[in-house]
Prior knowledge:
There is one protein chain. This protein is an alpha+beta fold. Helix content is 41%, strand content 22%. The protein has six helices and eight strands; from the N terminus they run ββββααβαβαββαα. It has a two-stranded antiparallel ribbon. Strands 3-4 form a two-stranded antiparallel ribbon. α2 (37-50) crosses α3 (69-82) and α5 (125-137) packs across α6 (143-159). It starts with a strand and ends with a helix. The relative contact order is 0.09.
Amino acid sequence: MAVDDRPDAPGAGDDVEIRLSTNPGSPLGGLSKVASGGELSRVMLALRLVLSGGPDVMVFDEVDAGIGGEAATAVGAALARLAVDRQVLVVTHLPQVAAFADQQLLVSKRADDDATVTVVEQLGDDDRVIELSRMMTGRPDSSTARDHAEELLATSARRRGR
């Protein structure tokens, strides 16, 4: 973080810039200059986790962009911690993040000759396993993917203390 004076307010120290290095060995740079959209979302998530207060409802749109595996699981766990005392809505394409949700919604588009309609469905337990399987492999009918989806849900539930 860099704190400087504005030209019109010497000594005030109210020109604040968050700086970070997005890759090992890269120099620190201003958040607005060096961070991608996904990185900006993850920095916002990290700030929300360490700062007290915050709004009652938070929305994260693809906070998991550009990550996977262990990092995605860590982001899912962080979002779950944040959701303990507020409503958190997350748009994700990663099963590791979706598995931490208390409720999972499936958003899809359906088109016919006359119109395109966006449909939102709340998924029950069995449907969550099918959807996580689809997210992982593109094959919701795969028994291996379903086993993995069930394991993912069980692991996230344990990490959340459920």
